[in-house]
């Protein structure tokens, strides 16, 4: 969460002319509810089921797509196994705790898991989640570091990685 998936995928999409679908936005459209509202009204377990269904739907699309996952997507419902399918290229955008903190502290309200956290709690949350989730993130076929890079630099690194 906050590593720049949505931002970077938009630029990558223009650069390589492949359409981009943001999984969180796709779920919001399908359910006609914000991610916040889904968490509040239906709970996280229900969100994780919707997230898995939506991910499978997009992977089965006949069109070539860039799918920007949610921050938790690889960590639930065995979604990490879908990152290594035959027609899939998966990229982990790797950010340090400090980079994630700097980005997320500016923009917490739309992210239900961190909306109410103080700066100290946010840093603790990031460190704990990176530790717990790194196994799943590391299932991606490629890793691209995003620390201290502009969006354009990261996109160029991704294009080179995929070439
Ligand atoms: N070099 C950079 N690359 C990517 N994002 C950046 C960069 N510098 C600042 N940002 C900012 O970081 C914030 C988080 O980016 P973004 O929302 O794209 O992350 P995300 O990985 O999609 O998060 P989420 O998992 O919550 O959807 C945005 O406000 C974005 O503008
Ligand atoms: O890190 C997470 O678990 C989440 C990240 C967001 O992309 C959303 O999918 C949701 O807020 C959960
Ligand atoms: Mg996003």
TrEMBL record:
<comment type="subunit">
    <text>Monomer.</text>
</comment>
<feature type="binding site">
    <location>
        <begin position="2"/>
        <end position="7"/>
    </location>
    <ligand>
        <name>ATP</name>
    </ligand>
</feature>
<comment type="function">
    <text>Catalyzes the specific phosphorylation of the 3-hydroxyl group of shikimic acid using ATP as a cosubstrate.</text>
</comment>
<keyword id="KW-0963">Cytoplasm</keyword>
<comment type="pathway">
    <text>Metabolic intermediate biosynthesis; chorismate biosynthesis; chorismate from D-erythrose 4-phosphate and phosphoenolpyruvate: step 5/7.</text>
</comment>
<keyword id="KW-0808">Transferase</keyword>
<feature type="binding site">
    <location>
        <position position="24"/>
    </location>
    <ligand>
        <name>substrate</name>
    </ligand>
</feature>
<feature type="binding site">
    <location>
        <position position="133"/>
    </location>
    <ligand>
        <name>substrate</name>
    </ligand>
</feature>
<dbReference type="Pfam" id="PF01202">
    <property type="entry name" value="SKI"/>
</dbReference>
<feature type="binding site">
    <location>
        <position position="48"/>
    </location>
    <ligand>
        <name>substrate</name>
    </ligand>
</feature>
<protein>
    <recommendedName>
        <fullName>Shikimate kinase</fullName>
        <ecNumber>2.7.1.71</ecNumber>
    </recommendedName>
</protein>
<keyword id="KW-0057">Aromatic amino acid biosynthesis</keyword>
<dbReference type="GO" id="GO:0009423">
    <property type="term" value="P:chorismate biosynthetic process"/>
</dbReference>
<dbReference type="GO" id="GO:0005829">
    <property type="term" value="C:cytosol"/>
</dbReference>
<keyword id="KW-0028">Amino-acid biosynthesis</keyword>
<dbReference type="InterPro" id="IPR000623">
    <property type="entry name" value="Shikimate_kinase/TSH1"/>
</dbReference>
<keyword id="KW-0547">Nucleotide-binding</keyword>
<dbReference type="InterPro" id="IPR031322">
    <property type="entry name" value="Shikimate/glucono_kinase"/>
</dbReference>
<feature type="binding site">
    <location>
        <position position="6"/>
    </location>
    <ligand>
        <name>Mg(2+)</name>
    </ligand>
</feature>
<keyword id="KW-0479">Metal-binding</keyword>
<keyword id="KW-0460">Magnesium</keyword>
<feature type="binding site">
    <location>
        <position position="71"/>
    </location>
    <ligand>
        <name>substrate</name>
    </ligand>
</feature>
<feature type="binding site">
    <location>
        <position position="111"/>
    </location>
    <ligand>
        <name>ATP</name>
    </ligand>
</feature>
<keyword id="KW-0067">ATP-binding</keyword>
<dbReference type="GO" id="GO:0009073">
    <property type="term" value="P:aromatic amino acid family biosynthetic process"/>
</dbReference>
<dbReference type="GO" id="GO:0004765">
    <property type="term" value="F:shikimate kinase activity"/>
</dbReference>
<dbReference type="GO" id="GO:0000287">
    <property type="term" value="F:magnesium ion binding"/>
</dbReference>
<dbReference type="GO" id="GO:0008652">
    <property type="term" value="P:amino acid biosynthetic process"/>
</dbReference>
<keyword id="KW-0418">Kinase</keyword>
<dbReference type="GO" id="GO:0005524">
    <property type="term" value="F:ATP binding"/>
</dbReference>
<dbReference type="InterPro" id="IPR027417">
    <property type="entry name" value="P-loop_NTPase"/>
</dbReference>
<comment type="similarity">
    <text>Belongs to the shikimate kinase family.</text>
</comment>
């Amino acid at each position: 969460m906050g590593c720049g998936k949505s931002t970077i995928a938009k630029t990558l999409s223009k650069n390589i002319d492949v359409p981009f679908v943001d999984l969180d936005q796709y779920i919001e459209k399908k359910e006609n509810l914000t991610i916040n509202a889904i968490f509040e009204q239906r709970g996280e377990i229900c969100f994780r089921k919707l997230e898995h269904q939506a991910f499978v739907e997009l992977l089965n699309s006949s069109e070539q797509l860039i799918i920007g996952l949610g921050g938790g997507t690889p960590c639930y419902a065995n979604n990490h196994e879908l990152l290594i399918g035959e027609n899939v290229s998966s990229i982990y955008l790797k950010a340090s705790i400090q980079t994630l903190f700097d980005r997320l502290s500016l923009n917490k309200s739309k992210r239900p898991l961190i909306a109410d956290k103080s700066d100290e709690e946010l840093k603790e949350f990031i460190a704990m989640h990176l530790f717990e989730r790194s196994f799943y993130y590391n299932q991606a076929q490629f890793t691209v570091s995003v620390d201290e890079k502009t969006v354009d630099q990261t996109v160029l690194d991704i294009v080179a990685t995929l070439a």
